[in-house]
Design brief:
Elements: E1 13-19, E2 24-31, E3 37-45, H1 53-56, H2 61-81, E4 84-89, H3 91-95, H4 99-110, E5 114-116, H5 119-131, E6 139-145, E7 150-156, E8 159-166, H6 170-177, H7 185-202, E9 213-216, H8 219-228, E10 235-237, H9 238-250, H10 253-259, H11 262-265, H12 268-282, E11 286-289, H13 294-306, H14 314-325, H15 330-346, H16 348-351, H17 357-367, H18 379-389, H19 397-408, H20 427-445, E12 454-462, E13 465-473, H21 477-483, H22 487-494, E14 497-505
Parallel strand pairs: 1-4, 4-5, 6-9, 9-11, 13-14
Antiparallel strand pairs: 1-2, 2-3, 6-7, 7-8, 10-11, 12-13
Helix pairs in contact: 2-4, 5-13, 6-12, 7-12, 8-9, 8-12, 9-12, 14-17, 15-17, 15-20, 17-19, 17-20, 18-19, 19-20, 20-22
């Protein structure tokens, strides 16, 4: 998505909070003038949010209390540093039936917005953290084994081409098969078969040409590689990992705790089994551990969200992939998005929306007719539902909700504050939805025929009016007729009359 330049303020302090299945972590960093980050403070607490979750389906009150207390402390640290912070929760919160209750508690008691991200969004952030700065031609395969899930990323440079998230993690497997002590061979064979079958089911269509040397980004992989590799070598081979699985399984819990950090010792056998299965499935010959991952990805994503002078096509590509899944009209969606973004840019002084709203408008414009796949007459409502129900890596749950609402109000009902779907929005969120939906309605009108007769436009604020110049390459009678239906809403939302003139051939 092309974005307009804006001067960036150096010395920005950022905070990344990662609520995992095994632990909760905080990373505070300073953004340097060259765009790199300098670590300021790190915290890790073995809260074990996933404790008992994979058997009961809920996070117990005791665990929730530990989690909220830890996040209160992290929130206080972030405020002390004046940090701009993003808190992300992964597999444990994704699956907990009481996740909404816990998210509300965190908001109320810790004053943090906890984003429960999808597996694919988690994989995207890991990719960004591990592969930041890689050249576009470099191909990489990254594996991250968490407590509840495993993420696999195939990337060119730092841009993911394929993302997979499998519900197979070190804590989950440990709890399911009780692997905390020595594991008999018969049980080990059972666990290995389970992991292999899970990966065969979830990673069915593995692309050809994957690198045979992978990068491992989690602490679990770091511990396994350090145990398995030959002395003086920085990586572990597939055979070495397989032998490590058997050696670790033979150890009792006391021996493991002498060899590993106590917080890792209980889950290391399960982690090794998962790593072995992934390497076998993807035909990976060697694995190298790195000390980067989700937290660094959150930090770099915060930088990208703040900077508006960088082209980032990943969200656009994710939106197009979703549209193609439902056989949408790509020519119409793309053209409406182009017109809507021109209006957004030309009328920046009028709408006064933050730059962060621009990609919301673009994605909503691309997908506004997605609901045609269900029903034409109420397609705006179905577009809303489909966007809300889909995974769009690059957007938080709340951001996806804003995109879905902008698409929902591209026709029929006006986006009025009393509408049921808009009641829980903050004033700032409501302004984004109302103004972006209005711009989308104008842009959509200008391609009512779906034949792209408008090749471009420009908009200028002139006193009490907005002068809209439409550049046509054919008849635009239908478009101009439809646009008249949006003039009144435009005046209500922006306080300006919309005056249209034509240039070019009609």
């Amino acid at each position: 998505m092309a974005r307009r330049s804006r001067t960036e303020v150096a010395d920005d302090i950022l905070g990344a909070i990662d609520v995992g299945t095994n632990a909760v972590r905080l990373e505070l960093a300073r953004v340097l003038p060259d765009g790199s980050i300098e670590g300021l403070h790190t915290e890790r607490d073995p809260v074990r949010p996933g404790e008992g979750l994979f058997r009961s389906g809920v996070i117990s009150r005791e665990v929730a209390n530990r989690l909220v207390a830890t996040l209160r402390r992290y929130s206080a640290l972030c405020k002390r540093y004046g940090a701009r912070v993003r808190a992300v929760a992964t597999s444990a919160l994704r699956e907990a039936r009481n996740r909404d209750e816990i998210v509300r508690r965190v908001k109320r008691e810790a004053e943090l917005t906890l984003d429960v991200v999808s597996g694919r969004e988690e994989a995207r952030l890991i990719c960004l953290g591990v592969l930041q700065g890689k050249q576009p031609h470099q191909k990489s395969l990254c594996i991250d084994i968490g407590g509840g899930s495993t993420e696999v990323i195939f990337a060119h440079g730092d841009q993911p081409k394929d993302l997979w998230s499998v519900d197979l993690g070190a804590v989950r497997l440990t709890e399911l098969f009780d692997l905390k002590d020595a594991v008999p061979k018969k049980k080990l064979d059972l666990v290995r078969n389970f992991a292999r079958e899970m990966l065969e089911e979830r990673l069915k269509a593995v692309p050809k040409g994957l690198p045979t040397a992978a990068i491992g980004s989690s602490g679990t992989i770091g511990a396994i590689v350090a145990f398995a590799r030959s002395e003086g070598v920085g990586h572990a081979t597939r055979d070495e990992v397989a032998r490590a699985v058997e050696s670790l399984a033979e150890m009792d819990s006391e021996k493991r705790r002498k060899r590993f950090d106590p917080r890792r010792a209980d889950i290391v056998v399960a982690g090794a089994v998962v790593l072995e299965a992934v390497m076998n499935r993807l035909k990976v010959n060697t694995i190298t551990a790195v000390d980067r991952g989700l937290r660094e990805g959150i930090l770099y994503d915060l930088i990208k969200r703040r900077r508006v002078d960088v082209e980032d096509h990943s969200l656009t590509e994710a939106a197009l992939a979703l549209g193609r899944r439902f056989a949408f009209s790509e020519a119409h969606g793309g053209h409406v998005a182009k017109l809507a973004l021109t209006l957004f840019d030309d009328l920046a002084t009028l709408h006064q929306l933050p730059a962060a709203a621009r990609p919301y408008l673009e994605v909503a414009a691309l997908l506004h007719d997605l609901g045609h796949a269900v029903n034409y007459q109420k397609h705006h409502k179905h577009s809303h539902y489909l966007i809300m129900s889909s995974d769009l890596p690059g957007l938080t749950d709340r951001e996806r909700q804003l995109v879905a609402l902008i698409a929902r109000f591209h026709r029929r009902s006006n986006p009025e504050p009393q509408h049921e779907l808009l009641k829980d929005l903050t004033p700032a969120e409501y302004r984004v939805v109302r103004k972006c939906a209005t711009l989308l309605r104008v842009a959509d009108s200008l391609d009512r025929s779906h034949h792209q007769p408008v090749k471009g436009l420009s908009a200028v604020v002139k006193g009490r009016a907005v002068a809209l110049t439409v550049k046509a390459r054919g008849s635009v009678d239908l478009e101009l007729w439809d646009l008249q239906h949006e003039v009144e809403l435009f005046r209500e939302v922006f306080g300006k009359t919309l005056q249209v003139s034509l240039s070019g051939r009609r």
